[in-house]
Amino acid sequence: MDIDEPEIHENSDEDMAVGPSSNKKDDKEHNFWKNNSNEIKANPERFGIEESSMELLRVFYNRFFPYKTYCYWLNYNNIEMNKSFQNREFNFVKPGNEEVYIRYLSFDTIEEFKNEVLRVCPKKIDIGAVFTAKPKEKKSLKLSALKPVEKELVFDIDMDDYDEFRTCCSGATICEKCWQLIAVAIKILSAALREDFGFKHLLWVYSGRRGVHCWVCDERARKLNDDERKSIASYLGVIKGGAQQTKKVHLYKNSIHPSINRAHKIIEKYFEQVILEDQEVLKDKQEWTKVLDCIPDDNVRHRLNDNWSDNPSKHSIEKWDNLLEELNSSAKTTKNQKKADSLQICKIEIMLQYLYPRLDEAVSTKMNHLLKSPFCVHPITGRVCVPIILEECENFNPMTVPTISSLYNEINDYDRRNVKNDRERNLHDYEKTSLRPYIKYFEKFIQNVLKETLAKNRALNQTSMEF
Amino acid sequence: MFSSTDTNNKRALASSNIRGDRYEVKRHQKYPHALNFYSVPPTEEITIDEFEGFAFDRLQVLKALEGAILRNKSEEDIKDIDKKLSLPLHSDDAAKAYPLEEERRKDHISHFILRLAYSRTVDLRNWFLKYECALFKLRFIRENKEERLAFLNNENIRWKNLSQAERELMREKFTKEESNACSITYDDELFEIDFEKVPDLVAKRAVYIKEGKAYVPTTEQISLVMYEFRQRLAKALELASKSFITLRNERIMPMLDEIIKYDGRTQTTNNYSLIDNPNADNLAEHFPLCMQHLYQNLCEKHHLKHFARIQFNLFLKGIGLTVEEALAFWRKSFSEIDEAKFLKDYAYNIRHNYGLEGKRQDYKPLNCMSIISSYRPNSGEIHGCPFREFSQSNLSAKLVQMGVRDEEHIKEILNLTEGEHYQIACTKYFEITRGLSDKNNDNVIIGTIEHPNEYLNASVSNEKNRMKMNNKDKMVNK
């Protein structure tokens, strides 16, 4: 790719101290605009804060965004651009403080897509469905001619949904401890999608702040209609009930679905570390009350509450052992079989309530739903929405994800160090930075997806030859 | 019905048959089963009376089912809904001797008439599909196991069945709890199906799913059968809609039109003019929201556009306005339009509605179904059903304006419209504004509104009753 070196302007540190969109609640969070302020050089006379971040975004779109792989992905073919890409709806959010959406965009070629991205410099890109016609021609089409026909099956897990018990952070903030909640969710969901539904191509993407998205790219998944999507979301939705509901998981002792059993086995591996050690959900009364509320027996609840109130300094792990003993002994002594069953199953219910994935169903059930694209930049944190390697999801650290300003610095450092080094001129810009492993992983993932369509097309050609 | 001269119709109905090669066209000498997948169209002759009667009787059943389902009636409640109305369909093992052959013939023919009538638009097709499925389902459940099996065999419906050995492998793998959750009993059959075909079972986590295949026990067979039924009927409806375009038959078309307009409970010949004095000013208070909206616009702007005019004029006709009265009313209302233009542009259409111009068809007042689904308003047009055409915020503002003040009520109505239950929303609106909604009383006070004129009549008679009650109270107090 031959891209002109972007013009960079000088700036003083002072003006950069507070970002325009930084949220006061986010003070725990690694604030992109704040932390990197002294490294951005722009002219305060000519540019305000927004403009300098715009410059960084422009550099990102100019030098780092993986246009080719990205477009081949959505095209599901790297030979010629087809309907899969050309009839795909994109949505750009214009740069600036206000949320100005440009909807029903679509592009015929990679070049057209790239040029438009560079021209608009969107602070967010959303991907929609593949339609029966080109979305950009919406105005000249009959309403009935533009219908969604295909889209990846997508899932959205947001840290927000864990706030009712998360003790390490709250709201938009995230740390390595609470990332583990997401990591376990990723494992459970991936296992279900692979083993139960037989999907192979799961692209997990960090949303840039406190959540993750999953793009299921298998052809069978892309062709699901809304009813089928709804049925999968419902199959995977175990946690039910809103803020007014304390107990959110309901199981029957004599009837546990294999997928729940598998999730339970995964959770067993992480529950102690993630929930009892890291989150310490039994640390003080306010927290442990939430756990006790899930127990269907007043006496058990009271006994545990009294016990822990007398020894509040006991560690959560010890308290959990108390809870299990209580449940067991009460289940044994009660003569009511129903009650015994509900006490025995209660342990699993609590574990699932804390670690089973909390899905935003609306995102998954509508084919027509827009979802933030991989490799766009989170407008507040400045982090790139990079793919997460499934096998290493526990070690993924959202705090160290490249931001548009860290990439900017990296590439400048590299260029300064290697001014006279001709040998590496052939390297892509991303390869000179910490973005490299993410794009490499993305490329490999897409290659696997394309291989399958290629094989399928070949088989199709062969059968058509036979006639 | 399809007398030999009506070759067009015969072709239309025959081509709505699914893939002729797989389901060979055979003459129905008799109906071996009560259940019917309706793959083969009827080819006998029937009288016009039968044609109409059969269609309306089936429609009544479908409408009743719609009402029952939207009101969340239990399966037990709707079990015999077709038998209670005039479309009985008894099994072979029924205790009494029913005219089985006759019942099945009527079921068969009536289905195909409605299929053709309802193939016209996407909305009509979806409606028909939904309630035909519901009807088939309750009938399938009603049959005993042997009869179901015989029927499926006859229709050549089979699914991949796991062998005893495969089932044994599964038994070893699963815990007792897991088998229970997937309703697997290893001694009975287990079908292997793509999970897409049983979305209801997937959603409930009621079956075992592995690598894209769902393992469906015989107890959940109904889901598979319904999938087959729905797919076939959906395809057949698409085909029927295509042949509908080529169907130009002067005898059949008007009858099919009548069927669509039929509102399910009142006969088409029903006269809506129950109102003593149609010109009374306060009658507008009893208008349903759709007509209120048109009337208010007419008063403010002294004009209504084409479809709004038709909708409102036929409504007035239903109230009992004569054509002279209607012409006088419109003349007065279109006060900013001069006499010549009125006569030239508008009077014709008004007279046309009354069957005095053109092909002299005596148009019936539009029912809710037509207002909701045909001729949806474009930008600038205000006709249609407000519960469907208004945005949520506009509708809630309108409701407040019309005197619905309770937040709960507004929310309830908005939820219904969001779920596309426009007529139920309208009924709810009626109950609320007429002081008939009682939270502690879940009984249905009035049936679902099916027609704007029915709404008006219900409102008027409701007020009459209230006045009577009040008078009675006064008498007692004296």
From TrEMBL, chain A:
EC number, UniProt record: 2.7.7.-
Basic and acidic residues composition-biased segments: 1-11, 23-32
GO molecular function, one term: DNA-directed RNA polymerase activity
Keyword terms: DNA replication, DNA-directed RNA polymerase, Metal-binding, Nucleotidyltransferase, Primosome, Transcription, Transferase, Zinc
GO aspect biological process, one term: DNA replication, synthesis of primer
Enzyme class name: transferase
Region of interest (Disordered), residue spans: 1-35
Domain of life according to the entry: Eukaryota
GO CC term (a single one): alpha DNA polymerase:primase complex
PANTHER family per UniProt: DNA PRIMASE SMALL SUBUNIT (PTHR10536)
Family named by the database record: Belongs to the eukaryotic-type primase small subunit family.
Protein name per Swiss-Prot or TrEMBL: DNA primase
From TrEMBL, chain B:
Residues at which [4Fe-4S] cluster binds: 290, 368, 385, 426
Keywords recorded for this protein, A-Z: 4Fe-4S, DNA replication, DNA-binding, Iron, Iron-sulfur, Metal-binding, Primosome
Keyword Methyltransferase on entry: no
Annotated Pfam families: DNA_primase_lrg, DNA_primase_lrg_N
Family that this chain belongs to: Belongs to the eukaryotic-type primase large subunit family.
Name of the protein this chain belongs to: DNA primase large subunit
A single GO molecular function term of this UniProt record: DNA binding
Residues annotated as domain DNA primase large subunit C-terminal: 284-455
Cofactor: [4Fe-4S] cluster
Cofactor note as given: Binds 1 [4Fe-4S] cluster.
